[in-house]
Amino acid sequence: MGDFLRILIREDDKMNQSNTAIIQNLYAAFNRGDIQTVLANVESNAEWVNYGPSSVPYFGNFTGRITDFFQGIGQSTSGGNVAVDRYIDAGDHVITEGRRTATVKDTGAQIDAPIAHFFTLRDGKISSWRGYADSAAAVAAHTGKAASAG
Fold first, then answer.
1. Domain count of the fold of the chain
2. Using CB atoms within 10 A as the burial measure, which of 29, 56, 73, 106 is most buried?
3. Any idea what the CATH number is for the domain that residue 123 is in?
4. What is the structure's pLDDT at 16?
């Protein structure tokens, strides 16, 4: 029985590493502007919520219209990058912590804000994504009003 459990644990570890590798690859695709690769790895009916006020074009619930989320980012910012400092592997869930940087096209203001993303994967595709960030910094950059939570 012990060998059987060790095999299951090893197989589970491979699956978990695979989910983290998928997310790492998707961040790399996002950072090089390859949104089609990102979308190809997201279920068509995936939950997609980026928490924050609707005054920022890419904050809100984008379930069923994920392309609108990426269009909001592309139309309102340039030079965007996500730098992940930590990946937390929890089986079908991958949690990331890092920073997002970008320049807001309308104001010229820089965004440099901490982020946390919660992914759920099913059969190698994202079935749920929830994003948290310093929304005060994003609002300030989009409106030209100084504010930041850190």
1. 1
2. 56
3. 3.10.450.50
4. 52
Q: Does residue 42 sit within a domain?
A: yes
Q: Dihedral sign, CA of 104, 42, 59, 23?
A: negative
Tens digit of each residue's pLDDT (9 = 90 or more) over 51-97: 999 999 999 999 999 999 999 999 999 999 999 999 999 999 999 99
Domain range for residue 113?
A: 2-143
Concatenated DSSP letters of the chain: -HHHHHHHHHHHHHHHHHHHHHHHHHHHHHHTT-HHHHHHTEEEEEEEEE-S-TTSTT-EE-TT-HHHHHHHHHHHEEEEEEEEEEEEEETTEEEEEEEEEEEETTT--EEEEEEEEEEEEETTEEEEEEEEE-HHHHHHHHHT------
Lookup: tokens for 33: 């502007």
Residue 150 included in any domain: no
pLDDT tens-digit series, residues 115-136: 999 999 999 999 999 999 999 9
- Report the distance separating Cα 90 and Cα 62, nearest Å: 24
